[in-house]
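Readers of this paper often ask what the protein records in our data store actually look like. Below, we set out a record of this kind in full and without editing:
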Amino acid sequence: MRPRSAELRRLALGCGNFGGIGSAPAFFGQGTDEETAFAIMDAAWAGGIRWFDTGDAYGGGRSEEWIGRWRHERRADELRVTTKVFHSTSGDPNDHGLAPDRIRRQIHASLERLRVDRVDLYLAHEPDPETPLAATTQTFDDLLREGLIGAWGLSNYDAAGIAAALSCGKPSLVQSSYSLLDRSDERAVLPLCVAQGVEYQAFSPLAGGWLAGKYRRDAPFPAGSRMAQRPEPYAELVSDRVFDGLDRLREEAAARRVDLPTLAFAWVLSSPGVSGVVCGPMRPEHLDPVLAAMDVALGEAEWKRLASLFD
């Protein structure tokens, strides 16, 4: 088993709910408040997590601002940050995309909010069909050469988009949704990343709270949960197949004397080709199962058996 410190380096704190619900303008100013965000960052830091993941439009810029303020007040100089570019930070539907001049405008705004001279990892948040991919990747390479970013990558790209980017440059990392309830990347994205030496980082490892046991069959969604606030990305999970699989996974977790989210998170960490995982707790105590998953070792046979619970 690898040392716990080695596993912790694979974790990033997801800050997408700080001051909003992701990049959705309708939720700017909602989501996790500043006091709770600071408590979550304190808990992550105390637990050994040294990489925070955000996006310039999360909470309309509030997420970056709060991370920057927290880093400055805590003197957390070792902190490394991922941020992303594509969506509008103001909610202006005409201000989005990956055009070179827009990327340059956005990176400088991110640096100011984060209070840093360089972003460690800069991601295209999603594909921009209106901008030639070569122009976007060239801009990222220019920012890298100028020292404004430490590396660049892609988020929410399919295999074809990743292959196209690889023909123009070399993304360091691909970030995508992956969990026991979302394994679509196993078909093409993960094999491509492994073959090309591109790191793969999973986000939404608990599928918006589904694998945390937050949602029960024939019960209303808890107030404040993702399904109560923004259910669209996970609407297809409301099914007997998923609830039956959750019941089986709960039994597996009990047999190992761990809780449901701990086992679900450990499964992602044990997945072939997965380099790291972004966890997005809503409260500090939600980090407990994430950190506990560092001590759960799953062999290949166990991993496959758990994967089959939702078939």
